[in-house]
Amino acid sequence: MRRRTVKAGSLEEILQATAPAAGGEPAAAPAPAAAPAPAGRPAAQDHGLRTEFEFELPRGYVDEAGTVHRHGAMRLATARDELRPQIDLRVKENPAYLSVVLLSQVITRIGTVTDVHAGIVERMYATDVAFLQDFYRRVNSEGHTRAAVTCPHCEGGFEVDLSGGRLGES
Fold this sequence. Notes:
Layout: H1 11-17, E1 52-62, E2 68-75, H2 79-83, H3 89-93, H4 98-106, E3 107-110, H5 118-122, H6 126-142, E4 146-150, E5 157-161
Antiparallel strand pairs: 1-2, 2-3, 4-5
């Protein structure tokens, strides 16, 4: 077997460098190049799997300018997301910090804030952090944002969507 060295270049260059030697089957025409993804974002692929979930915080994150951000999005966690906090020194010193680090990795935006880091999660109200912890568990364990609840007055059971909306709205 002959080894070939291929330098990283365009898809067409790689296909030409790895094409079968002359006398073999004709090489297929190279596929058209996909449109480049926006900077900092991987190319979107539709696998029929919902990977990002919208939410609305009960109180909202207040930034340095005093703006309240309530709407946000959280993506599904990967194994790396769950393993990374285990080696974080802040988590080793204080295991309760694990949820702060984990949430900061999977929250993709809160209002207009797209660079969500541990410092932002630290400055959130405890009510919102508790909401996000429950939201994380529901999305990653159960695969949805619905919760079964019981009316305290009529004892009737029904389902609510935790991903947002105002009380009384469907």
